[in-house]
Specification:
With 276 residues, the protein is an alpha/beta fold. The protein has a domain of 192 residues: NADP-dependent oxidoreductase domain (TIM Barrel, Alpha-Beta Barrel). It contains 10 helices and 10 strands. The strands form 2 sheets. An 8-stranded parallel β-sheet has the order 3-4-5-6-7-8-9-10. Strands 1-2 form a two-stranded antiparallel sheet. The radius of gyration is 18 Å and the shape is globular. The model has no long low-confidence stretch (mean pLDDT 97). Belongs to the aldo/keto reductase family. It comes from Arthrobacter saudimassiliensis. Keywords: NADP, Oxidoreductase. This is Putative oxidoreductase/MSMEI_2347. GO terms for molecular function: oxidoreductase activity, acting on the CH-OH group of donors, NAD or NADP as acceptor.
Length: 276
Amino acid sequence: MVQPAPTLQLRSSAEIPQIGLGTWPMDDAEAAAAVEAAIGIGYRHFDTAENYGNERGVGEGIRRSGIARSEVFVTTKFNRKWHSRDGVREALRHSVERLGTEYVDLLLIHWPNPDQDRFVEAFVGMRELLDEGLIRAAGVSNFKPAHLQRLLAEDLVPDVNQVHLDPYRPRHDVREADAGSGIVTESWSPIGRGGDLLAEPVLTALADKYGKTPAQVVLRWHVANGFVTIPKSGNPERMRRNLDVFDFELDADEVAAVDALADPAAPLTDSDEFGH
């Protein structure tokens, strides 16, 4: 078993493990097997979503493992059809039914869907769920600074903003907006989505220096920046490596060298245009 990830304290006081297991695009059977194996490896944080169609599998994997529900941190997200004060309550009801749990640790608005312009109302409903103890933390996903500002103007502050972020896509504007309000930045697809990131000479050189893989160096860069991150894998050995990044540290110059990989041309999904 690998050393479990350290935790960060959210604004709500919930403790979130800094590395979790992403589960998109696993189906229920794949998610159940991956989550069960991951718990045995040392994972205590699992990320799912209504739109992934695998919440049942995530819940089944937790039950198969025999671990107490209180020992794991579960994140799920809801779609645009639930963007209303009462809708989020219904979304949560469906999610906990599929997960087979009484609560979720972190509930996220999956995409802002600004064309619909109801994410502020949705977050009001989420804060009510938080006050009632039905969720332990409330956050958002794929929110740009302008979307966050709409919430902040209503004194609504998410615990987490989960965004596509890796060394090619450092998302400095989002990170600065998050940090300015005490919001934890969480990165999805943290080690790139194809392309040549893991072949970059700076990463291969650091991997050789520390006896790690380039992917482990990238994940350590996320940790060094204070992010929560959720690499996805269904392969137990890769899952083990993804969690095994707490026995070395990158110094400030090495973090800066990875920072220098930023590519302004790296594609990003525009959350003003895309959503579900």
